[in-house]
Amino acid sequence: MAFIEFRDVCKTYRMGDVEVRAVDGMSFSIERGELVVIVGPSGAGKTTVLNMLGGMDSCSSGTIELDGQLVSGMGERELTQYRRHDIGFVFQFYNLVQNLTALENVELASQICRDPLPAARVLEQVGLAGRADNFPSQLSGGEQQRVAIARALAKNPKLLLCDEPTGALDFRTGKQVLKLLQDSCRVDGRTVAIVTHNLAFTGIADRVIRVREGRAQSIETNECPVDALTVEW
Ligand SMILES: Nc1ncnc2c1ncn2[C@@H]1O[C@H](COP(=O)(O)OP(=O)(O)OP(=O)(O)O)[C@@H](O)[C@H]1O
Ligand SMILES: [Mg+2]
């Protein structure tokens, strides 16, 4: 069995009399240590997939497994533990705590989990050792996103989930962030899933899942993924 198994997953949101089928029978698997890009147009269901993988949202039907755990069968308490210990999240707009320094933001995350990595070391890994005492408002967007990545990585999660992690960044900074995520996979063996609408990102991935209207339109594996710094868009 693969590290992650997403089987026949549906997600329906009900708003009054209207039903929205955000995910409509999606299946895919992801191996441990892979870099996966989930790509598709706006409204395709990408964030919904990521939220279900991360235990932030439940599926309406189907099953979701990670490392032998049936995530789709977990109750609230188990889901809290799962989110806390097994999952790292990176969002488009960083979501740092504004009145904590870069280092404190990273420490905050590592304090809540079982097997954290040293916060200062992870901050160094993302190239921000010299900015540890700066507040988010004193950092550029790219630097703030690197703090957010350090915060997620310091939890030493089984799976790192990134929703449009370069969406708020310019081309050059975006590439550096992408490179950091790719390195975390290549160097540390971390399993990383990146959601994007940017087709240029597909080249860096081991596995590309194309989604459209709530379905996996195609799933391809890349034999020779390219270095993130060479990507053009
Ligand atoms: N909490 C919710 N309640 C109702 N509808 C929702 C909810 N979340 C998502 N949807 C709907 O589900 C569909 C898929 O949304 P989703 O956010 O997963 O798309 P996406 O691929 O991430 O899009 P984008 O690239 O714009 O972020 C959309 O039609 C959206 O309006
Ligand atoms: Mg989205």
Describe the protein.
The protein has two domains: 4-86 and 158-230, Rossmann fold (3-Layer(aba) Sandwich), CATH 3.40.50; 97-156, no CATH class. The chain has six helices and ten strands, in the order βββαββαβαααβαβββ. It has helices at residues 46-53, 76-85, 102-111, 119-125, 141-154, 171-186, and strands at 4-15, 18-30, 35-39, 61-66, 69-70, 87-90, 159-163, 191-196, 207-212, 215-221. The strands form two sheets. The protein has a six-stranded mixed beta sheet with strand order 6-7-8-3-9-10, with helices on both faces. Strands 2-1-4-5 form a four-stranded antiparallel beta sheet, covered by helices on one side. Helix content is 28%, strand content 28%. With 233 residues, the chain is of the alpha/beta class. β4 and β5 form a beta hairpin. Bound molecules: adenosine-5'-triphosphate and magnesium ion (MG). Residues 46-47, 163 line the site of magnesium ion.
Short summary of the structure?
By secondary structure, the chain is α/β, with parallel strands linked by helices. It has 6 helices and 10 strands.
Task: Set down the secondary structure blueprint.
Layout: E1 4-15, E2 18-30, E3 35-39, H1 46-53, E4 61-66, E5 69-70, H2 76-85, E6 87-90, H3 102-111, H4 119-125, H5 141-154, E7 159-163, H6 171-186, E8 191-196, E9 207-212, E10 215-221
Helix pairs in contact: 3-4, 3-5, 4-5, 5-6
